[in-house]
Amino acid sequence: MIAEAGLAALWLAAALSALQLALSFGLGGEQGREMRAVRAVALAQGLLTLFAFGALIAVFLNSDMSVLLVAENSHSQKPWIYKFAGAWGNHEGSMLLWVAVLALAGAVVALFERRLDERTLGATLGAQAALALGFFAFLLFASNPFERLNPAPLDGRGLNPLLQDPGLAFHPPTLYLGYVGLSVAFSLAVGGLIQGNVGPALARAMRPWVLAAWILLTLGITAGSYWAYYELGWGGWWFWDPVENASLMPWLAATALLHSVNVLAARGGLRAWTMMLALVAFSMSMAGTFLVRSGILTSVHAFAVDPTRGTFILALLALYIGGALTLFAFRIADVKEGAPFELVSREGGLVANNLLLSVILGIVFLGTLYPLIAEALSGEKLSVGPPYFDSVAGPMALVLASLMMIAPQLRWRRDAAPILPRLAPGVLVALAVLVGTFILTPGIGLLPRLGLAIGGGLLPASLQPLIGRSLRRTPLATWGMAIAHFGVATAILGMASDSAFTREQLAAARPGETVEVGPWLVEFRSVSPVAGPNWTALEGELRASKGSGVTVLKPQSRFFPSPPTTTNEAAIDTSWNGQLYAVLGEQDGQGRWQLRLWWKPFVTLIWLGGILIGLGGALALVGRMARERRQRIRGEEAFA
Amino acid sequence: MSPWLRFLPLLVLVAFVGAVAWRLGKPAEEQIPSQLVGRQVPAFTLAPALPGRPGLASTWLAGGKPRMINVFASWCVPCIAEAPLLMELKRRGVVIDAVAVRDRPEDVAEFLANHGDPFERIGSDPESRVQLALGSSGVPESFIVDGQGVIRYQHMGPIEPNDLPRILREWEAAR
Hints:
The complex is a heterodimer of chains A (640) and B (175). Chain A has 640 residues and is of the alpha+beta class. Helices cover 64% and strands 12% of the residues of chain A. Chain A has helices at 2-27, 31-61, 68-73, 80-86, 91-112, 118-142, 166-195, 200-231, 242-267, 271-294, 307-331, 346-378, 386-406, 420-440, 446-463, 476-501, 605-639, and strands spanning 503-509, 514-517, 520-531, 536-546, 548-553, 556-561, 564-569, 571-575, 578-587, 593-601. In chain A, the strands form two sheets. In chain A, strands 2, 3, 4, 5, 6 and 7 form a six-stranded antiparallel β-sheet that branches. A four-stranded antiparallel β-sheet of chain A has the order 1-10-9-8, covered by helices on one side. In chain A, helix 9 runs antiparallel to helix 10 (271-294) and helix 15 (446-463) runs antiparallel to helix 16 (476-501). Chain A is globular. The model of chain A has no long low-confidence stretch (mean pLDDT 86). Chain B has one domain (45-174): 3-Layer(aba) Sandwich (Glutaredoxin), CATH 3.40.30. In chain B, 37% of the residues lie in helices and 19% in strands. Chain B is built from five helices and seven strands.
C-alpha cells in the first residue's frame, strides 16, 4: 500500500511540474495571480516528491520484499541503518532522491526568492519545472522504484557489502544535494537569458545556491575520498576513476562559478562568462550522473548497465544542455558587458582563477572521455590513468595555488600599489620550504616538492586578507574566504606529503614475525575469527611501535554471506603526524599471511583541508545571507 | 565575443552526445586485447633473484628461440595455485623465465622449494619497474616472447587448467 501511495504521489508531482511549466509560460492569466499559482504548484510538487521518497524509505525499513527494488537490494538481516541508506544505494532510489531534491529546490526558489523581478523568476521556475518533468518521466517510465514483485521472495539479495558502511548514508545524498543545487543556478541562468536580464540582481539570487551546492560537493567529495581510502583497502585517496571525475568536474565548474558570480554581484562584470559557467556546472552534474548511471565508462563503481536508461538520460541531457547552450549562443550578444577593469585587479585575479579552473576542467573532461573518443575514431582500446591527470592537472593546480597567494589581496578595478610587499610572506615561506626539502629530502619528486613549497607559502598568504583590519568587523564572507583558502593550502600539503613520503611494505608473514615500515616496527601477533551482525571475519592483530608505546591494529578480511563477497577492512592508526594503514590479505599454504602496510605522513591533512574549505564556504554563506537580511529589513524600514 | 565562439560549447556537446550514443549502440566487449602483443619486449636487465642462478635481461629474449616470462612473487597467493601448471608447461617443453616482483632471495628460494621450480632464469624486480614496462598490472602474469624478442601472447592472472591448450597453441605459433 505504501508503495502504491508513493507511486501515486510521483505521478501527481509529475503532472504538477507540467502545469508549472505551462503556467510559467504565461498560460495562466493575470501576472500577480499567476505567480501565486506557480508558487502553490511548486510547493505541492516538492512535498509530493518528498512524500514519495519517504514512502521508499518506509518500504526499505519494513523490508517489504514484494517491492522489486527492496528484494534486489536489501535483506531482512541487515542493520537498520543500511536498510535506511539502502533506499538510495541503488539506481532507482538514487534517481528518486535526485528528483526529490530537484523539486524541493524548485519549491524553495518559488517561495523565498525576492530579489528577482517577476518575469525572470517566472522563466526560472519554468526552466526548473522543465528539468523536473524530464526526470519524473525518466523515473516513471524507465526506473520505477515502486515496482512490485509477484510472488514476493522470502528474503532479499542484500546490499553490496562495500556499501554497508556509515559513509554511504552520508556521501551520495551530499553529492546529490550539491549536484541538484546547481540546477537552480542553471535555471536562473536560463531565466535570465530568456528575459535578457543578466545583472547583479540575478547574480545575488544565484550566489547562495552556488555557494550551498559547492559546500555540499566539497564535503561529499572529501567524504567519498576518505571512504575509498579506508574501505577499498588500496591505500590511495584518489584514483581518477571516471565516477570520481564525474563528481570532480561539477565541483571545478562550481568553484569557478562561485568566484565569477561574485564579480557579477559586486561589480556587474563577467556577465556572459558567469552565465556560461552556470550552464556548464549543472551540465557537468547531469553528464556525471549519466556517466555513472549508464555504465558507459569502465569504473570501479560498477553500476548495472542498462542501454534503455542510458539512451533516456542521454536524450534528456542533449535536450536540456543543448537547449540552454543554444539559448546562450543566440541571446548572449544582447547582454551588456559590465564595468571595465585592468589586468592587475581583483577582477583580473578572478578571471585568471576562472581560466585555470576551466583548463583543469577541460583536462579532466578530456581524460575521462578520451578512451571513448579514441575507440570511436580508431577502434583502439585504451585507458587514461593517474599519470596523465597527475602530470597535467597537478601543475595547473599549483599555478592556481600560487595565484591565490596574491589575488585575494588585490583591489577591485585597478591596483597600482606595489605587489611585492604583499606577496613577500608567502613567497618567503615557499622558498624556505623549497630549500628545506632540498637539504632534508633530496630524493623526492618535483611535483610533491613544489606542492610542499607552494602549500607552505599559501598558509600565511591565505590569512593576509585578514591582516590590518578589525577582526570583529571583518565580514564573515572574508573570514570564509581566508579559511577556505587556508584549507586549500592544508589539502595541498597533505597530498604532497602523501606522495613524497609514503612508505609501503608488502610482506608474507607468520604470526610472531615483525615487519618494518617507515619508522614503525609492526609485530604480527595472531589471526582469529570474529563475527559481526551480518558478516564473519578473520581479524589480524598487529602491534605497532616506534620507540615507545604500542598501538594495536586489527585489520579484517570480512566475509558477507548475502550477497557472498569478501571485503578488506583496513585498520588505520591516526597519530598527529600521519596514519599507519594495515590490510590483511589471504593466507598461503604454509601459515603465512599477506600483509600490506603503509606509513603515510600527514595524509589526514587532505581531508582536514576539505573540511576547512567547506567550513569557509559555510561561513561565507551565513555571512552573505545575514547581510542581505539586514539590508532588506533596513530597506523596508526606509520604505515605511 | 565572436559569433563562432558562442557556438563552441554546443559543438562540444554534440561531440559528447555523438561519442556516447555510438557507445550505447555498441556495447563494450568483455575481452580487452593486449596492447603489447606484436611489440618488442622493452629493454631491461635484472639482477639474479637467487644467488648462484642467472638473472634476466631482454637481450636474452631475442635468442632465436621462444621463451615464456612468468611475472610472479613469493607473497602472491594465486602464484601458488599456478605453480603446478607451470611445472606441467615445462614438462611439455615450454622454456620459462621469471621476474620476481618486490621479493627477497630467501623468500623466493623457499617458494621454489615448496611449489616447484620451473624457471631457467629469474630476474629480481624490487621496484616493479620491469613489471610496469611489460604492461603487467599484477601478479601472476605470463608472456610468450618469440625468437626475435616480440611479445606474442599475454596472459593475465593465474594460469588455470583450461588455459593450457590456448597457451600451448600460442607457444607453438611463436616457434
